[in-house]
Amino acid sequence: MPQIGFGVWKIPFNQTAKVVTDAIKNHYRLIDTAKQYGNEEQVGQGIKDSGIEQKQLFLTTKIFNGDQGDFDKLRNAFNEQLKKLGTDHVDLLLLHWPVFNKYIESWRALEAIYNDGQARAIGVCNFDVDHLQNLMDHANIMPMVNQIEFNPRIHQPDTVAFCQDNHIQLEAWSPLGNGQLLNSPVINKIAKEHGKSPAQVILRWELQQGFIVIPKSIHEERMRENRDVYDFELDADEMEAIAMLDEERHSIWYDKYKWSGNPNGLDDYIAKPGEF
């Protein structure tokens, strides 16, 4: 699994295929999408247009919350996702959210998908320690990845420690904090000292902690910039200075999902063309 991937959340629908093709052209080999993003078909087209065989890529998608909880429903829905992606398998399949009273049965379906070769690895997103422990108590196959919100503003230390202790690979969504960290004086000072951009410093901070990162951009120059992070290293003082920016606050929309206690949440919501 590449340590730097490319995320496609909120990329405009009419640009997604080209952006994915551009990302692959600029040497991204991990592409991360989800049914909830509503763009799996465009991602599949972008991969096709790139001329790169899928076996040279690492393709991730996620199970939609509205498809969770019923073994057959989930499997049938995932088969439709594969058709949209234009493939017979993905490299990583994740449960998008820990939907209350449904994620254990959903995991049973993921185990079957894994055993049948339709996913070469399976994991979860947004699972905290309690969710992970409960899942592992019922699982035959342990989750291989936990994709969580992680950047200098939110560290989720208990979840990170649990995953590290249990050999679950951590992957950071929103690794650049929705761009809100790019003007940080602390990060800009470190960036200037290394002759790098603030985004490169943030990604380097995460990579040095063993995270996989999936930044996104529709601009090829920034795509290349986000990958150019292996020719410098942050020292211990710099790592700590960035860590001190922690506010331990989720994104503003994080509590809009029913699993977190909101009865009018977005569990059945799929993005629509033209919305982003």
From TrEMBL:
- SUPFAM superfamilies linked: NAD(P)-linked oxidoreductase (SSF51430)
Q: Does the keyword NAD apply?
A: no
NADP-dependent oxidoreductase domain location is: 4-245
Pfam families documented for this protein = Aldo_ket_red (PF00248)
Among InterPro entries, the record links this protein to: AKR, Aldo/ket_reductase_CS, NAD(P)_OxRdtase_dom_sf, NADP_OxRdtase_dom
Which top-level group of life is the source organism from? Bacteria
Is Signal included in the keywords of this UniProt record? no
Q: Which UniProt keywords apply?
A: NADP, Oxidoreductase
Q: Which family does it belong to?
A: Belongs to the aldo/keto reductase family.
Q: Which PANTHER family match?
A: 2,5-DIKETO-D-GLUCONIC ACID REDUCTASE (PTHR43827), NADP-DEPENDENT OXIDOREDUCTASE DOMAIN-CONTAINING PROTEIN (PTHR43827:SF3)
What is the name attached to this protein's record?
Aldo/keto reductase
**Organism, scientific name:** Limosilactobacillus vaginalis
Source species taxonomy:
Bacteria, Bacillati, Bacillota, Bacilli, Lactobacillales
